Prior knowledge:
Layout: H1 2-30, H2 36-65, H3 74-77
Amino acid sequence: MNVFIWIKNILILLLSLFFLIIGVNTLLGSYRINNPMEFVMYFFSASLLILVCLVGIIYFFCRVFFPKKDIINEDETS
């Protein structure tokens, strides 16, 4: 069961890194757009994509470096 959790976490990290690269490329490409409305749409969509990817990366590092501890309730043991 522990292997599946690691596979899930690594998959989240890889997908987050992949879409982070796409988001940064979209953000940089938005500066080449001449139409101001299109610039705003591309800029904010790339910013949202980068933000979501950063949350996925933070999720992975929190799971690796701060794992959940099994808390046993004393009422359940008796």
